[in-house]
Design brief:
The protein has 154 residues and is of the alpha+beta class. It has 3 helices and 7 strands, in the order H-E-E-E-E-H-E-H-E-E. The chain has a single domain, classed as 2-Layer Sandwich (60s Ribosomal Protein L30, Chain: A). InterPro entries: Endoribo_LPSP/chorism_mut-like (IPR013813), RutC-like_sf (IPR035959).
């Protein structure tokens, strides 16, 4: 059986990274019934950590690209939680995005759109979700973005 999510990723030229291991005393995901809670994923791309502070030399477009990297890491964690079977993913329920930004930066929603748009591109209507996009004075390792997610699964 063809996996439509894997097919769509290929069509978009996207590759999921390996599901990142936890960096401290927590687990990468927790399943409770049909709900999967995925721990915050920091912006990490093929060339390493995506660092920077929005409003201080980092453009909104670069922040959105960092958020897209977070979305791919979130999806990689979902895949790991589902033993590699993304057909069991029903929908994205909620994302909470944290943007490393200056006190006067107000475009956090535009940055987190990088993740939201990615989920909709990959999953269609199942990628539409509730969301928060908030500023953070700093994030672990100086990354630009961190996003956590809640997913409905089979």
């Amino acid at each position: 059986m063809t996996n439509p999510i894997e097919t769509r990723l290929a069509e978009l030229g996207l590759t999921l990274p390996a599901a990142p291991a936890p960096a401290a005393n927590y687990v990468p995901f927790v399943r409770s019934g049909a709900t999967l809670y995925v721990s915050g994923q920091i912006s990490n791309g093929p060339d390493g950590l995506i660092t920077g502070k929005l409003g201080d030399g980092m453009a909104v477009e670069d922040g959105a690209a960092a958020a897209k990297a977070c979305a791919l890491s979130l999806l990689a964690q979902v895949k790991a939680a589902l033993d590699g079977d993304l057909t069991r993913l029903k929908r994205v329920v909620k994302l909470t995005g944290f943007v490393n930004s200056t006190a006067d930066f107000t475009d956090q929603p535009k940055v987190i759109n990088g993740a939201s748009d990615t989920f909709v591109e990959i999953l269609g209507d199942a990628g539409r979700h509730a969301r928060s996009a908030v500023s953070a004075a700093s994030l672990p390792l100086g990354v630009a973005v961190e996003i956590e997610g809640i997913f409905e699964i089979e």
